[in-house]
Amino acid sequence: MDETLRSELRKAGVFTTTLEELYNWGRKNSIWPFGFGLACCAIEMIAASMARWDLSRFGAEVFRPSPRQADLMIVAGTVTKKMAPQVVRLYNQMPEPKYVIAMGACAISGGPFKQGYNVLKGVDRYIPVDVHIPGCPPRPEALLHGFMTLQRQIAAQPLTGPNRPRHLKAEAPSEFPIPEFGAHDLVPPSNPALWTAPKLAKKD
Question: What is the model's pTM?
Fold first, then answer.
């Protein structure tokens, strides 16, 4: 509809919308985060839900205690290789549509522990991440900004066509393989469907 006509109708008290806009409006304003933290970033996540920042203003009213009641996983903190299978398992138990926010440098790339043998160098090696929030640790305002970024992504998703969200694609996986503990590392070291090591060309 022409925006000028829509504006004139609003002045008369008539509001128009589409099924797609209504569907996405409901999804973006009823995101329920999963209540778990891995390291120090979880303190900032907890603070964002307190009265000063009040994450519930955006529809994230309560942190759910079970992955079966949540649709947003906030990976807040360092993901060790011992914890990585549990993170993937919890993600698989969440119902679609589901989203992931990687909060902090550790969740994004390993952070200051990147060179450690026991730390996963980015949770996006095993599960798809929708929003990355840099920082060590990021402040609650950064989490609010990341949350609003996710809401804008949801609001812009079409319900049909090739750009429709993953949960509307029958061929797209809802669950991902859970890594196992090998002799020296996780097996597989990453999910090749989500992440592969970049190939560097050697210069002669």
Answer: 0.87
